[in-house]
Amino acid sequence: MTKIAKYWHLLESMQFAAINDKKHGDAQYLKESSLANDMQRLSHNIREFRKYIKLPMKDLVRQLIEDLNLKHILGEAVELGETEDLATLYSFYGICMIKEIANNVNFISNAKEDLVAERHKCLFIACVQDIAQWSLQQHLHPNFYKGRPALFSRPHDKKTSFKNLEIYIGGFTHVLFIKPLHIGKSLDEPILQYMAGIFSLLMAFEDKEYVMADQEIINKTACLQRVWLSLPKALYFRNLMLMKNNKILSSSGQKILQRQLLVRLWSPGGFNAVVFALAECKNEEHSLEELISRLIAQPAYSAKAQKSLITQILNFLQSCVDNQELLQYMGVGLLSLRRLYDLNDKNKTFVEGWLQSQLHILIQPSCEKDFAIMDWSNFQSLISFLFQLFCTSTVECLPSNLLTSYLNLILNIFYHVQQYNNVQLLQGHLKALILKCLHNQNAKVLHKLIEALALQRTDFKEWFALNDCIRFDENPLNSQDLRIILTSEGPHLWDPLPALVIILKSSTFNLLSYNIFLILFRLLPKLMKEDEEEKKISESMELLQPEDLQQTILREVNSTYAGRLHIIKALESLVQHQPMKCMINENCSELLRCLADILINFAELNKHLVEINESTLMITLILIREVMQISTSSSDDFQTVLSKPLHNLYEHIDRQSLKYQILSLLHLLQGQNNLNVRYEPLKNQFEEARGLVEAKESYLQVEGIEKLIKLVNCRDAYTVSNGHAVVAMALNTLKSPESYTFLNCVRLFTALVHVMEVEILDLLGDEYIADSSTLDYRLVVGEVILKIGRELGPLCYKYKFILLNCFMNGCRSHLSEFRLSAFSNLAQLCRILTYQVHQYFQELLHLIDYEITSGKYLPAKRAAVLVLSDLLEGMDNLIDYEEMLLPIYRLLKCLAYFKQSDEQIRVHATNGLKSLSEKCTKLLEDITASPLEKEIKILALKDSSKPGLKKHILVMN
What confidence tens digit (pLDDT) does each residue in 329-339 have? Predict the structure, then answer.
């Protein structure tokens, strides 16, 4: 310690360049001074050195060479020690002192006996800075002092001594790697001079200006490696860039620096280091992204080096996502990655493999059932990372075609998470990924993608899907997060189109939405052809079936009609979107060609279209007329596209409502050039009635309904062709609280049913069983259906499936008032369709028995008994119903003579038995009184006949 103490005293007596303690605290910074003052200061310091270091200079140099293990210059010790140059003397004394202090003071230790005073540490740092300036900086390779701007400076008469430089480098090797001395940027300049000194020796050896053994070359390279491993890598790259910026360096010098740069760049942490290094000393003339991407993306780099850089960049980008402070460097990494990706196919394959490895856990998870697949925070980080890679820029990001194979997977993830409210950021990132992938595809690829999604094809090339057993739900341990588990419940079904429609409607990609709309629309004819080839489900199948057979039916229906249903729902949702309406108005010609193609496909189908295809054709015809009316194109364009398909279609169909629509379109095509003015008298009458119906006053609505009824009854062409609009107005008016209004609306439906029988009954049936509607509205709809049944009379047998199933469905409702209405309507319908309820009889009897035994609402029980009474009332010839009479008789007799039954129930049962008795008496009288007659009856073609059962004369379907 006594030896070290003298050096602390020596430091206190020495003079260094001006130190600004107030501004820089404990860090020491050198200030420029005049040459005279420097020489005076050096002389003073040398005198102080000689007081404490008694060795002659020759012996001092020899001892330094021995301690630094520089045996190859040991013979030059005497010559080196004979110098009289103040800077050289000061450098040798200083190297000796800082080496002794570094070897004998433990700066890293926290022990009390090893603690160094802060003042002594500051003086030591200032001494190191001063000695580096007079030793290392004065003996660099001459090329380092050339060029503009010059990085290093020295007096013009000074010459480089590579032997002295070796001694200086050896001495500083003992000091520069002591980390407690790196206070702020206090040793940045000495480190730069140290590295420049090493490169000076390597350049001199390369240019044969200085001779060194191979071991010395290895030692110098090891010193550079130690700087790379021990000190900040950004500082290393900064120093390399500063030295490499000197264009005057020899070719060998440039080669050495370039090789060193590449070696460090390809090593772990190299990319991060070069980013931070260039960020500190970037040139304002070029952006940081351009500088680094040019340096990184070099075709001359080896394949191994390029893969190393790609891996480093991906790790760097992940760090930027996880650390918000690094987001400013995201563009640097993205542009560098993109340029490396574009260099060759090997890099593209490597990036594709990396992407698959990131998402592989969602495609084929290896965890056990009912356990979390991955941490939710890691999943969010992964999606954010993909968002940054693909969606933050059109130039810097990776090409979106990499996501094409994962489109189904990402859509499925969005389908799962879009129902939760606390993941808006995640949903935004998923939307952006999907839209970017779709938006950048050409028309052909986009059509294939949408078709694969709509039809849920599994044979699409390289199509990765989310594992069927993965489920997203709330995390019971953290209500703010979700969790991803591999459920043991088995695979789940999902439809990608609703999720895609939600994304499109919430975006500003209106043209993309329009193109997808057209693609979905063009898929309809293809589905029609497939439906024609599908195996039809038997219409005569009874409702009560074994459970396994019901599941089979459900699967058949789903496979046959699910695709079309999903597409139609997607089209319906998109066409209601206001920007989509604007796009259709601006691009009518494209939509019109699409509609024409659908008409051509309809004409190519069988002449007898199934009902679902008829409804689709009706929608298509209505759409064509709407497009023609809002379009500003000339009639010649429409006539060229539509005339022939419409004429061909007219010859192949028999439905009158479809013919009305086609004739209306043909009239439009043959009219004036302005498509907005056609058949004004007809149109004016319809529009006048429409305006009255849409008025708020009840009396005006009734007047409008009366006008519409007259137009429908006289088969007005324009009104019939706008039947869909009339139905929409009628449904809306049916919700009116004014009884006079909705009762007249019922009359309108009874008039419409003669024009649009199937459409009206299907629509009203759906409205009647819709649980989302109000009770009052559903009751009114039931009244409308019953009125229509009465209007059609016995001829409504064609729609017995719709009518009976509709009311029997209502009989199962949990709403007591609704069950009452359903049973009452069913009773009146059974009186009309008595001869058509054979195949429904068992279910009908089951519903009545269940209501009587289990129901708690007395009026509904009474209505249920009334069904049997009205059923008997409607029977004409009891022999036709002999299989039904015994169960009805037993039930009515039980109800009529059960004293604890409700009085009204007993009355209904008694009336039923009385009616049955009268009909039996009349039957017996007719048999005994009338002679035998020969009777000819037309049997049903489709109904399954029962042996020995006679049919009613009106069964003609």
Answer: 888 899 999 99
